[in-house]
Write a structure and sequence with these properties.
single chain, alpha+beta, five-stranded antiparallel β-sheet, 2 helices, 5 strands, 45% helix
Length: 134
């Protein structure tokens, strides 16, 4: 199967959507952590525990669905709290354009095998192939 690639302009157009998505997901993750603590508390009444477990299941399903939608778009979610890679073509190699929650635009790239620690600033956007006509 051919992997989807993105140009910088195209990836940047998705940043506002990513920011909104991960703002929601991060809130749900915070609540999931709270629920984990509540459920680990030995003093929670059994009837209350089932309500917390149900809320936990609903939130986990929401997170899963949000991230699946991003992956269906061809994005690669690297961290559930907001780290996303976009496959791109730079010269004759496939690389990742890298976005992290809080960043206003795509400003970094890294090789497929170097990961986040190998991020490098994008110096010239024209070094990356466009994937559509502007």
């Amino acid at each position: 199967m051919r992997m989807r690639t993105f140009g910088i302009d195209e990836a940047n157009r998705l940043v506002p959507h990513l920011a909104r998505t991960f703002a929601s997901v991060r809130g749900w993750l915070t609540r999931l952590e709270e629920l984990k603590d509540v459920l680990e508390d030995a003093h929670v009444a059994p009837g209350r525990a089932s309500a917390f477990e149900e809320e936990r299941a609903v939130l986990m399903d929401r997170v899963r669905k949000e991230l699946e939608q991003l992956e269906e778009m061809g994005l690669e979610v690297k961290a559930v709290d907001g780290l996303v890679d976009f496959r791109a073509v730079m010269g004759d190699q496939v690389v990742y354009l890298c976005w992290r929650y809080g960043e206003e635009a795509i400003g970094h790239w890294h090789t497929l095998d170097s990961g986040f620690s190998g991020r490098q600033p994008i110096r010239r956007s024209q070094d990356f192939a466009r994937t559509y006509l502007a």
